[in-house]
Amino acid sequence: MKLTRSRSMRAIVVAVAAGSLALTGCSNDNGKKDNGKDGSAKKEDAAKQSKPVAYGDAAASTGPAKEVAGAQSGGTIGVYLQSDLSHLDPGQIYVSDAGQFSRLTHRKLTNFLEDKDGNLTVVGDIATDSGQSSNGGKTWTFTLKDGIKDDEGNEITSADVRHTIERMYSKVIFDGPSFVQTWLSGKDYRKKLPDGPYKGKHLPDDVLETPDDKTIVFHFDQPRPDLPQALAMAGYSIVPEKRDTKEKYDKAPAALGPYKIAERKPGKSLKMVKNPHWDPKTDVVRHQYVDGYDFTTTVEQASQTKRLVADQGEAKNFIQFTTSVDPGQIQDVVSDPEVNKRTIKGFQPYVWQMNFNLNKDVVKDKKVRDAITYAIPNKSMIGADGGKYGGELAGGLFAPTLPGYDPEYDPFEKSKTPMGNMKKAKELLKEAGVKEGTKITYAHANSPRAEKQKLIIKRTLEKLGFDPQLKSIDAATYYEQIGKVKNPYDLYITGWGQDWPSPGTVVTPVYDGDLISDGASNYSHINDPKVNELIQQALTEEPEVAAKTWEQAHHRIVEEINPAAPIYYAKQLQLFGSNIGGARYSTESSYVNINDLYLKKP
Known about the structure:
By secondary structure, the chain is an alpha/beta fold. 24% of the residues lie in helices and 18% in strands. The chain starts with 42 loop residues before the first helix and ends with a strand. The protein has a 6-stranded mixed beta sheet. The chain folds into 2 domains: 213 residues, D-Maltodextrin-Binding Protein, domain 2, CATH 3.40.190; 226 residues, Roll (Dipeptide-binding Protein, domain 3).
């Protein structure tokens, strides 16, 4: 998933504001010290939590959720957002702000349950467990729990689950995930059911089957061991068939979770209240402590931070929803113990990397790519993004949040040379025969962070003897422009993070040569037969076995090809008011854990 404000579970373009899947260095409302001596998240700590995800049985999936110590009932929590939510229709949700909202109102077949150490288990959400596989992993069967209803009291059946999946095939849905549809029907899945379920047609039973009201069966042409994790994505939340209003559903979706929408003023505010038909006995993840949430969607990052630092009046009851602390105020926050204890800190799943356009002659020689990689002053790049609270030196392309992450992996020795190794870089360029003054084009977004970092890259390239040509691209279309196979740029920075905690959601979309096309996420246009082969092998293996295959693919990509130089691992830092209880860093979202919040004084 890339990250931007507007598509933040898919692209990184502007300041740090994303999702993550590992708990590290958290402050909490009890004022306990951070794991890191300096209060920042440490990648070694993250590695302890980046364990393979477990699949839970019926016992693990049975509610209610474990009570939060000291939790009180009542009151309303205020929410700061910089702009309106991108989507409310779950089928359209592939963005972090909408994903966080989804945790309050939508439910899925499966969900992620995290323990006190941040480890994740896939459990049944509206299903009785995380799913039962058969036929060598090609068939997955889910049974629905009793008592699952929407906010109007309508019981949810397998027909609603089928409808949820099939509507993803229609043109009504254009902005959500496509994993399950592709696995069921191939890359051209829309052609198999172009109108979705809206004209009475359905996928054949040998693809998607509902033998009774409680059972849904997925049939694939190859093993899909990650299905329970994919179905835990917000984009696969249930849309009741009788409530579906197609395009209009994005304005007023049904609620299956603990809260429903009471009032919405687009671009201004959103009010949520309790859903009386949510039964806690069916839910092992969520709570319903407060009476509701009031969203204000017009508060800029700097203002959010100032209000929460001051902690006066109603600000005591507010949280940052998906916005991070303003980079310019980070020191004000972390240097004040009373304010710092009202923060959450942790790694995001995103790795910033310098992409080399392998279609361009100037970077076709691996020695040139390695030279630039060695020369990049990673520490300076981090400094332009909030310093140690904004990121940490990256040794590879697997974030600390990902199973298989190795904190010692550092083939370019960045931990020893955080400001770059210019001597090594120049030796490689000399071996490659690069002439002094060779032109090289570096494209960057026109975001505040990227504007700072472009100067660092420019100086680095000049020291190497290049003649850098800087090209500014509007942040809103940045990924669209660099996503073109025949784009004119030699270098550009991107970021990517897992859609769920599996290396397959990193290696496959970004480094699979079979996925090169305009608009795809293989930004370096790497097409290595060995990597492609390892990807196909790992996708059919159980997670424990696949881990070794993914590691092999990762090492080949970084060491033998180097299509993208690792720069730094992104971090998160958020604030909440002093009356907020239960605040902790969520391993599932990288934000404050919205499912456990309460007001200390309702």
